[in-house]
Specification:
With 344 residues, the protein is an alpha/beta fold. A five-stranded mixed sheet has the order 2-1-3-10-4, sandwiched between helices. It binds alpha-D-glucopyranuronic acid. Alpha-D-glucopyranuronic acid binds next to loops.
Amino acid sequence: MKKILRTAALALAGALALTALSGCSGGASASGVQIIRIGHNQSTNHPTHTGLLAFEEYIEGELGDKYDIQIFPSELLGSQNEMVQLTQTGAITFCVASNSLLETFSDNYTLFNLPYLFASPEAYHASMDDPNIVGPIFESTMQAGFEAVTWLDAGTRNFYTINTPIETLEDLRGLKIRVQQSPTNVRMMELLGGSATPMGFGDVYTALQSQMLDGAENNELALTDNGHGDICKYYSYTMHQMIPDILIGNLDFMEGLSEEERAIFDEGFQILNQTQRDAWETAVEEAKEKAENEQGVNFSYPDITPFQEAVAPMHQEMLEDYPDLAPIYELIQEHNAEYPADSQ
Ligand code: GCU
């Protein structure tokens, strides 16, 4: 089934790429209404899908005579990497991509991928809501052909494994752990002592099932929504990253909007952000409950200090490699001081 979906998706993605090459981005229906395709890699139960439905309802309510929003969940338009490229060319108008992946398109995104960057979820939210922090980073992808228009919550990332719980750094040693495809994530695993196995999200289930991997790392929804909890019975709250998802839009499309339309889209992005965040906490609670009671996943809370210490050099490395990011890093420290770890 998955294979059939992937084949259909690749055919659609190929057709979309050809459409873009012919210079006919977005596509127009017979009625002259422009089709806006939005791709993401989550299921239709996920808060991101719920948020996008609210976005669709609002935009079509305001501009339905001009735009028809079509949402493609579950990697139907390809992996996140493929969708970012389709968005760059204009084959699709928007997609949701993890900030991790965007690092390979623009160095500035490296900052939000740093392990233990945010002291608490509150500090993370305050930072992502701070235009002085996200503004310069979001603007930096313009040269890559896309604009970042809003962020979405993706919770905290923690390790989960098939056979043994991760309680200490020693437990990670030598384990093959799937990470997202970004240099920061590979470096993080190197410092933590595991063996980083980068791959796209959609391939993780099969790799876990065939025990090609010993585990992975993600928020709680991966256990239930993506079925990883059917295979991995140990979930350890190492809280090593809080990596936002980002909605990106094709630059030509964004720049082609009139001022009035842009204001309506901006309101739509706000609605998406708020709806997704409002749904997030409940979704995590439900996922945890289901994982514990139906899938038999054990949750544990290791001492995270040794994990923090192991990856601490990455902060200095990043500041040395990208000195321009230092003022933004400092602004995040102000939010960390306001919302320290024990503010949770
Ligand atoms: C989370 C995140 C996705 C990302 C995935 C991953 O689910 O929301 O955007 O693709 O992690 O680990 O790849």
